[in-house]
Design a protein that fits this description.
Elements lengths: L5 E10 L6 E6 L4 E4 L2 E5 L2 H6 L2 H12 L4 H12 L2 H6 L1 E6 L2 H10 L4 E2 L5 E2 L3 E4 L9 E2 L1 H17 L10 H9 L14 E3 L2 E3 L9 E13 L14 H4 L4 E5 L8 E8 L17 H25 L5 H19 L3 E5 L17 E3 L8 E3 L4 E6 L9 E2 L2 E8 L8 H14 L1 H48 L3 H17 L11 H12 L5 H18 L4 H16 L5
Helix pairs in contact: 2-3, 6-9, 10-11, 13-15, 14-15, 15-16
Length: 560
Amino acid sequence: MTPAFLDTFRLDITPLSPVHIGSGEDLDPTAYVLDENSIFEFSAGALGQVLDSAERKKLLNLVNGATGEQVLAGIQKFVFDRKDGLIAHSVRALHATSGVKELYEKRLGTVAQSETGAINKLEIARHSSHPGTSTPVLPGSSLKGAIRTALLNRENRGRRLIGKEDSRKLQQRLLGYENFKLEKDPMRLVHVADAMCVMRGSADGFAAETAVAFAVNRKKREQIRSDGEKVRSQAERKGLYQILEVVPALNWRMFQGSISIHAKNLQHDRLPRNEFRWTADHLATACNEFYVPIFERELGELRDRGLLNKQWSVAVSRIDPKLDELRTARRAFVLRVGRHSGAESVTLDGVRNIRITTPRGQPKRFENEATTWWLASDHIDANANLLPFGWVLIEMTADGRPPPACLEIATPMQEFRDRSGEPQWVDKALRHRAEMLKQSEERTAKREAAEERQRKKAEQERRRQDERARLTDEERRLDDLRHQLDAVELGSNKSQGQGGLLAQNAVQLLKDASNWPKAPRLQAADLVETIYRTIGYPKSKKGRERKQQIAALREGTDVQ
C-alpha cells in the first residue's frame, strides 16, 4: 500500500529511438558467436558443456601458446568453429544487422588495425540489464537525471551564469539549497525506480529483446570542399565508431517502472522550500518544454540532411498527433537518456557552452550547439537510414493503474517493427537455438554412450590384468592367445589367416605345451583346435600334422 505522504505513478516507457545506457561492461568476442543475423551470448560454463577432453586440452594449449592480441584472435576463431554447440547453450540473443555480420566475418580470428593504429576489436558495449534475467533495464538514476536537467532548465529560464559559477553552484542556486544542504535538494523527494522490460524471449529465460548497432559520427551542416568532396567530421575521417547493444526503436510500452513524489502537504523544516515541491504535472510539463523542441529540431535537421531513416520518420509522423494530445493532457512526456544523447539535451538553455573538437594545433573552440551527431546505424559507412539515440516516451498513470489502450500509437509502431523484421527475427532466433539444443543433446548422448563403453572396456581390462596377475605362466600364455582369437572372431583383425600371427602363435603353442602339466596342456589342445576351426586348417600334409599334434597334446605324447 502506498504511504499517505507519497504520490506514486506507474510509468509505461516506449523507446522512440535506439537507446543505450551502458552497464560499464563489454560483451567479449570470445563470449558470443554470430550466426546469420543473430548474436548468441553464452556463459563461461557453456564451453565446459560443449568441449570434450581433447578440445579442452587444445583450448588450453591455445591460451598458453600465444601472447597479446593473438590470444584473443585465436580463441575467437576456436569459439566460432564450435558455434553450433555454443548456440545450444546460449543465454540470450541480440539482433545483428548485415553490417555487423560483415564486420564480424571480416575480423574473425584476426587482429585488425584502424587508420590510427589502434586495435579494432569486436567488443560490444553492453546495455544495463537485470542480473537474473539478462533483460534490458532503464535505470531509475538515468531517468531521474534527465528529469532533473529539464527541471533545472525550467528554473533557469534561459538566463546566463552568474560570475564564475560551476555546475554544482548553478544547481544549488536554481533549486534553492545553497551551502551544501543536500536535504534541501528537491530532487531527493522524487524517487524513480528502475524500469524493467515486460517482454520475454521465451519461457525458459532465454532473452531476445535487444539489438546491436553502430554509433557513427556525422556533421550537422553539409559542407563541400573545393574539389567537390563532402567535408567529413574528424571522427568519421579517422574511422571511429562504437558497437553498442541497444534497445530497439518504437517498441510499444516495452518497459514498466514507477515514480514516487513526496506529497506537498508534508511539512518539515528540513524539506525543500514549497516552490520546489513539485507535482507529477510539474515534472511532465518541464520535460516536454525542454525535450520536445530538441526532438523536433533534431528530426527536422536530420531529414534536411537526408540522414534520417525514412520508415521511422513516417511512423513518428503518424503517431505525433496522438503524442501531442497525451503531452498536452500531461499524461505523457518525452525524455532523452543514455549514451550519445547530444550535448544540447544535457545542458541548459542560456548557459550552454559546448566544446567543439578542433584539429591538433588549433585553439579550443566553444559553441552554443554541437557541430556533429552520433547516430545509430546498420553500417559503418552509411549516410542514410540513420537514427538518433536516446529518445523515450513515458506515460504516467496514478495508483499503478495500467494506461488505456492507444491504437493510434501502437499500430504504426507495430507496423514499423514488422517491416524491420524484428518480431520475425525473435521467432527465428528461438527456433534456431531450439534446433541447436536438440542436436547438441543428441551429440552429448552419443558422446556419453561412447565414454561409457570406453569406461566399461577400461574396467574390463583392469579386471583382466588383476586376474592375469594371479595366473601361472602357462595360463597367462593361453589368455593372450584367447584374446588374439577374440579379435579375429569380432572382425577387428581380419588380416589374420593361416599365415598370420595367430596361426604362428598356435603352432608355437603346440610345441611348447607338450611339456606342460596335464590341465593347461589339455586347455592348449582345445584352444588350438578352436583356432584352426576359425581360420581353417592348412591343406594336405600340414593340416594332418596339426591334427596329430593336437591329439598328442591330449594324450600326453610328444609328436615331432
